[in-house]
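Hallway conversation turned thread

IA: we were arguing at lunch whether anyone had actually written out Ankyrin repeat domain-containing protein end to end. Turns out nobody had. So, for the record, here is the sequence (308 residues) and right after it the structure tokens. Reply here if something looks off.
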Amino acid sequence: MVPSRHLAMGETMISRFSIASILLGLSVFGSSAFANPDLIAAAKEGDRDAVLNALEAGRDGPASLGRPLFFAAQRGHAEVVRLLLEHGADPNTSFTFGSPLHTAARANDTAVVALILEHGGDPNLPAGDFDQSPLHEAADRGATEVVRILIAGGADVNFRNDKGQPAIHDAAASGHQNVVELLRGFGAKPDLPNPIAPGELENANIEAGSRALNGCNTCHEVAEGKAATGIHVGPTLIGVFDAPRAGQEGYAYSDAMAALSGSWTAEALNEFLSDPTGVVPGTEMLRTPDMTREERIGIIAILRDAAR
């Protein structure tokens, strides 16, 4: 027989676990976590008849259909997805893991992606951990046909997630060069700054550039004559000006960077520092410290002077 003290403790632990489970469900799936559990189970299994019976019983209004729709889309149950959408499920319900369109794009499910788009799914809906679009998800998985369907449905090939990265970067970083070329063919391009004007480098604000360069020091050594060590996971910046790109000996560059030709001219640096993942999709330098044009030109002037 279990002592009453231990039983009470067990009951408390179960109660706490139940509360934690509910809170987790709320954080991941929002209020739709309270959808009919039988409907959720049927949607997961792809049991169209059970889903239809649950819907016709009238227990579930459109607001509670988001979670069943997400699971049906995640598991590729196209007929259940259609049924839920026809009964008013919001195709743009968003959870921690994205919308139904995001999860279908991740699964490279052309049929479900097309269905959701037909019923008002937003191909540019930012959702998930990084506010990515469904196109980011498809590009990351190399889902070529889903990429085509999303673009035909209005997806913006130059949409950026909350880290400022376009879908073409996800494709390149995952090694899907065919998707990289496909996105370029549909107009994916970097967000380029205005070219450096005559005299702009000569009159650069070195103090502003020096402040910004300190932000680069998180990953790069910026002191002259010092090799990159410890926290400095990127190559040393001093000496890169007018040097071949991906040219430092002993550094393991990303495939995207290693494939580049040419040198780090002032204009090449201007473009790359402005939009690294757009200019070199697949680069391991995912973003630069937030900086103004004045600060960026100041950095370039410092690197130029260090190379003289």
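OS: looked through it. Residues 4-29 form the longest helix (26 residues).
IA: good, adding that to the notes. The chain has a mean pLDDT of 87.
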